[in-house]
Amino acid sequence: MDDHEDLVEPLHVLCVLGTGMDFDLVEAAVRAYGGPFFSLDRESSEHEHDPRMPDAFEACLAQLTFTDDDWAAVDEHDSVAYVLAKGGQEQASFISERMLAVVAELFERCGATAIKSESSGLAHGRETWLALAEDAAEPDVLRQAWVKRPIHSGEVLHTCGMHLLGVPDVELEAEGLLDEGRLGEWVELIDGLAGYLLTEPRAAEIRDGEGFRLTEDSPRWLLRQQSCDRYDDEDIFFNPYGYWRLTPA
User: What DSSP element (H or E) covers 40?
Assistant: First the structure.
């Protein structure tokens, strides 16, 4: 990636809905459980119902984990807070893990009732968020918490949110991407590469044109390095580390 992209630091933004939230209490929790990279966006936070939220949460795949109580919380909220965290590649995993600790504290002691990530367009139900926070040290939990997939765009499926973890997002280019019968296969492949990028030290040494396969007996794919031209560099989804695109070998 070029030098300009390397200067862009990903921004974590949480949209936090609640009933009767005390923003002083929220800000104290954010500082205590997040640390120096975290803040409450007072200017954007409001003690008002936002009628756009049901549609916004639905667009963030909330239906995958939301219960009736979660949907009721979205419908009945009377306050919206925005929590921010920003740092470079070296701080990415720490920030993402601490953000889960902030999420748990907001739910358990600060009046939060529903939360979504603005930075990856992903929402979870309350119980799912709390389970993720409890297991935050596990290798794959941060990906599950912050990475949305698969997203169909043009001729590829792709992830969104790997920038929050300090690594490139994943794209998949193949025939049959819209075949629902193969969706599980595509997700497994995308998750396999994403997990490799997040956990294997050698992932930082991958070069354009190298091969990748899930197992020794799995089909071989080629990796192509891509800049993030899907989003403007001021967009919250922009990944300064680019993409690795899987293409058939």
Answer: strand 38-40
* Phi (first) and psi of residue 137, to 5 degrees: -80, -10
The DSSP line for 153-172 is ETTEEEEE-GGGGTS-EEEE
For residue range 149-175, list pLDDT tens digits in order: 999 998 999 999 999 999 999 999 999
243-248 and 169-172 strand pairing = parallel
Q: Is the pTM of this model over 0.90?
A: yes
Q: How far apart (Å, rounded) are the C-alpha atoms in residues 146 and 161?
A: 6
Residue carrying structure tokens 């601490």: 98
Burial class (CB in 10 A: 0-12, 13-18, 19+), 125: buried
Whether 186 contacts 170, CB under 8 Å: no
The Cα 13–Cα 177 span in angstroms is: 30
